[in-house]
Amino acid sequence: MARALVVFESVPGETRLIAMAVAQGLATRLPVDVACAQNAPTAVPGDVRLLVVGGPGHPPAGPGAPRYGLREWLEAVTLPRGVHVAVFDLRPDEPARFAGDGAMGIERALVRGLGANAAAPPEHFLLPDPQGPLADGQDDRARRWGQALAEVVAPRPVASAAPAAAAG
């Protein structure tokens, strides 16, 4: 049975909230697993039909930054042929030229670098302050986006359970 995998990098933790909301939306049509980048499989299983990857608008740096994050995972990962991908980032509510576009870099690595198929344009969720919290309504928007993505790759609903979250 086809399923989805959501991989995220989260410092201080707001990206995890978005990843879980996206997974809840996906779970309306697909079984879904959620993993932080440091615990995500570097060989994405062949039954993964949709891979959703997200992180902050800028790679985290400093004392709280993970030693193994999305950048390292993207360098190591292999994907099944024909997998669909969707990417997201968190950014301040300002123009992209100031906020950065982490999602575009992630999508480039997955589509151009690894041959995945883009399921949707990159999505940007608002984080007014780098320390959080999310802007109002972002978790609901993420859930709706997850539902829309699921409809693209799995037109029929399946009996779903809550998303399975990996440690991290």
Helix-strand pattern, N to C? Answer: EHEEHEHHEEHE
Shape: globular
How far apart, in Å, are the first and last alpha carbons?
26 Å
Annotated CATH homologous superfamily = Flavodoxin domain
Using the coordinates above, name the CATH class. Alpha Beta
Count of beta strands: 7
| Main pleated-sheet profile | 7 strands, parallel
Features:
168 residues; alpha/beta; Rossmann fold; seven-stranded parallel beta sheet; 7 strands; 31% helix
Brief write-up:
Residues 122-143 are annotated as: Disordered. By secondary structure, this protein is α/β, with parallel strands linked by helices.
Question: Your description of this structure?
Answer:
This protein has 168 residues and is an alpha/beta fold. It has a single domain (3-162), classed as 3-Layer(aba) Sandwich (Rossmann fold). It has 5 helices and 7 strands. The chain has helices at residues 14-26, 70-76, 96-99, 102-113, 138-153, and strands at residues 3-8, 32-36, 48-56, 84-91, 117-118, 123-126, 164-165. Strands 1, 2, 3, 4, 5, 6 and 7 form a 7-stranded parallel sheet that branches. Strand 3 (48-56), helix 2 (70-76) and strand 4 (84-91) form a beta-alpha-beta unit. It is globular. The two termini are 26 Å apart. The model has no long low-confidence stretch (mean pLDDT 87).
